[in-house]
Every structure is written in C-alpha cells, then in structure tokens.
C-alpha cells in the first residue's frame, strides 16, 4: 500500500505539471536574460523539451496541448545556484525513508521557493544526503540538483565548538586526519559515499576566540586526492592563517568570507585572485558581527581586483531560510544586481565546469530557470526574493501560485 506521503508527493507533482523526460514546458514572460550582462529579450517564449531549452523567441511555434506558464511582468534567468547549504538538520536524517511529499515540502521551504535549482551541500551525513538526492533524481521527490561534500575534514583534535550538538554517532564519524595518508583516505571515503566536492576546515573555530589551522601537509594531501578525482575543494578558512593554508594547499573555493579580517591585505586578496580562488561571501552569517563593514569592503575589493564570487547562504546551518538579508548585505557592499545574478548563475556554472550546459538561458542548455515577479536589474537585488517559478530540467519544482 502506498503511504499518504507518496500519494501527496505524486499529487503535488501532478499539480505542478511535472515535465520530466519526453515532456514539454512553455514559459511566456516579459523579459528573458540569456545572462546577467546580456540585453534582455522582451515578451518572449521559452520552450523546454526533454529537459533542455529547445527554443527561445517572440514568435515560436508552441504545441497546443502543453503546460504553459504565463507571466507578463516576470523576468526569467538561468536557474539560481546556492553554493553553500547543509542537509544537517535532524529532519533530513531519515531521508531514505521519509514520505516523498514531506521531503518535497521541506526542500521547497528551504530552497526551491528561493529560486534555487542547484545547491551545493558543503557538509552533511552522506548516507542521508545521497538518499535524498537519489529520490530527487528518480522523480519521486521534487527538489533541486544537489552536489555534496559528504563529511568535512577537520584538523586533528580540533572540531569546531558549534558542531558539538550533532548526534553522537555523526560527531564520532567526523574525519580529523592526523597524517597526509589519513587525509587522502578520508577524501576517498567521501568520494566512495557519493561526494562530489571536498570540504576542509583549514581554520577550525574550536572556541569563540580560538582558531586552529589545519597542518598544510594534511590539507595538501586532501586537495591532491580530490583534484586527482576532478573534484573541487572548498575550505572554511576563518582567518589569515586559515587562508594561507588554503592557498598553500591549492584549495579552490573559500566557503565563507574570512570572518576574522586582520591581515586580509590587498596583497593577500591579490594572491587569492592569482590562485583563481573563488569566494562565497555568506554575509548574512556575519551580519551581526562588529566587523561586517570590513568583511563587505574586503569582498567588494576582491571582486574589483578580478576575484570570482559565488552566491551562498549557509542555509541549513542557519535555520532561518530567508535569503533577503544576503541580498541586502550584498547591496550594502556595493554589488550591482548584475554582479549578484552572475554569482547566482554564470560564475558557479563555470566554477563547476558545467557552463556548456548551465548558467545561461540559451537553446541547447539545460532547462533550469528562475522566474522572478519583476526585473531585479531595474528594481534592485531585493527583487530576487520575489520568486514565481523555479524550474529544473523543464520540471516546475516551485510554483508560487500553487503554494499555500
Ligand atoms: Zn556551512
């Protein structure tokens, strides 16, 4: 017998007009931006077939018997990425068994209602997260594309103070490699468990004012192993020594702006750009810190020097899912709506090496779209919270008009 959750999940998919393989979805909107810098196409139609964008234009032939979404004042962008989330709240622990409808609702509240078609989980129990992902990919659960780091690696005997509330069995499984060989093994275990990226704590906050750096040889072994499997390495660096370890080890992405800003000189920011290091600002996380102004200024300066930034919020660690504060902080830092849209679309697609399939709205690309109720390039970054539809591979994974 089907559980109520499975039935609710199936009804929800029916209700949202799921367009999986072999199906067609048509979207008619006021503006379509191929990329944040492109001139928008007005009053345009986008046709998605078999999960890919098949046509975009003003006068394209549209089949009559298909699902058509119409919104004359809306603006469509490539599907948004949130490159820093976690599936670590207790409600994800039974992702293999929970009713599909419940998981779909949880994913909508946390992610797809904010426009995220793709998310990067930078640390969680890989068994739960890969089960969740598998159920999304099979079409049983409605949600975003998930990349996951599995379990992060920590310096020896230096777990962050704020993870001590995790369930004891998860806490005892957190890798704290003591040698380069152990670090390589920990990365390989994550890859075997389904991990797509690696995450290192190159600066671990063991107490509010005490930060322990990861030994460089351990970080380097982890990075070398991950890179040999063509995986990106993210790091939580925290402060100057943590950034220096990340630079020496060859880390690709800082999962946060370094929150301790002492020593974050222009020279250091230049080294980061020269190493092609990408940074996820996560400004909301630091918005109550006394040095938030300096953090914002350093991120804007890094960007002005040519440094790449990706959008991320640490949602899932932060259990308030509202992303408006992140947009507000990015605006206060001086980023234009186009800058922020690039952080949400083109930059992460390029960093993850999928820019031939994603990050832009063009024929042949994956049918991932975020449709907003107004144009943030005209209205400001805060309009990015007005999400009307989130579409992944031609399937509507969030519809504001169908959501209570
Ligand atoms: Zn995090």
Mean pLDDT: 93
Question: SSE order in H/E notation?
Answer: HEEEEEHEHEHHEEEHEHEHEHEHHHEHEE
The share of residues in helices is 25-40%
Determine the CATH topology of the largest domain: TIM Barrel
So, CATH architecture of the largest domain? Alpha-Beta Barrel
The CATH first-level class of the largest domain comes to: Alpha Beta
CATH homologous superfamily classification of the largest domain: Metal-dependent hydrolases
Give the class from helix and strand content and strand pairing.
alpha/beta
Major sheet characteristics = 7 strands, mixed
Distance N to C terminus: 28 Å
Beta percentage is 15-25%
Count of separate DSSP helical elements: 13
- The side-by-side strand order for the widest beta sheet comes to 3-2-1-4-15-16-17
Poorly predicted runs are: 1-20
Overall 3D geometry? globular
In short:
With 404 residues, the chain is of the alpha/beta class. The protein has helices spanning 4-15, 100-110, 126-137, 168-173, 180-192, 216-228, 240-249, 266-274, 292-304, 324-332, 337-344, 346-351, 376-379, and strands spanning 24-32, 41-49, 52-57, 67-78, 80-85, 116-121, 145-148, 198-200, 203-207, 210-213, 233-235, 253-254, 278-279, 308-309, 369-372, 387-392, 395-399. The strands form 4 sheets. It has a 7-stranded mixed beta sheet with strand order 3-2-1-4-15-16-17, with no helix packed on it.
